[in-house]
Amino acid sequence: MAEAKKKATKKAEVAEANLTVEAAPVVDTTAQEATNGTTEESTQTSNTEEAVATEPKATAKAGKRSEKGIKEAEEKAAKEERKAHADEAKADADDKPKQAAKPARSRLERQGKKFQGSAKLVEKDKAYKLEEAVALAKKTSHVKFDATVELHINLGVDPRQADQNIRDNLVLPAGTGKKVRIAVFDDAAVEDVEIAGVENVTKALEKGEMNFDILIATPAQMPKLGKYARTLGPRGLMPNPKSGTVTNDVAKAVAEAKAGRVEYRVDSTGIVHLGVGKVSFSETQLLENLQAVLASIKGNKPTSVKGNYLKAVHLTTSMGPSITVDIASIG
What we know:
It contains nine helices and nine strands. The chain has helices at residues 2-23, 29-54, 67-95, 113-119, 130-139, 198-206, 229-232, 250-259, 283-299; strands spanning 148-155, 167-171, 182-185, 195-196, 214-217, 261-265, 271-278, 310-317, 323-325.
């Protein structure tokens, strides 16, 4: 019995050992070896690519494969890409609904309230007689100071032609209403001037002091003013025989300047601009000045001008509205 029990126990142990062996996982050595081989190959391939990347690319000395050619091609591609993005952005912006633009205000609406009030007194597209224009100019002056009455005449001339470059001077019958400061570049004794004498005027010019509105000189002293031409010329202060500021009769020139001598000259567009008095003047005084200026301009009509000589005449005041004058009323 004891031996039988021993044999049975031994058989049970053997069977249990066999079951344990059968339950243990079987390792596929072939697959493991293949995996290890693949990993090694991947590592070798990666190392090879890194080596290739670190090696400098072979470039040609010239042409598209040169370093310069490759760089230009890259820049061109980048430029095309930016252009494509810009076109896309523009197309998107065009697709967006546009806001309705506000209508632009007229020139009159952009002016101040006082100017708009004065402009209402002037009828649009109407030409006034000279007497009516003078009276209306005095009414439409809305500034607090004594404004200048201005005359603007559009002439049918070509200033590029020497004989059509209209220029003259005259003494206004009622004066200009402006206090004129006069300097005399001569040693002769002259009264009623701000500065006189060659030495005194020269010292003032050397210092850059030009506290005068008119400079009168004699023909003999004109060469001494040549060195100051660039200073006096742009300011309109250089003496000129045509304007009556170069003369031997200095006393007469001073008297005329004080009485209201003015000079006019056609500009590059064929228009004469001239102040003919002050708003404080009476209508009679303004009419006298206007008629004197118009007579001078008509008297200087070039013989080469054909057709209308006076194309348009306007009267206005400083900062005031423009008034169209009927040319037929001028005579």
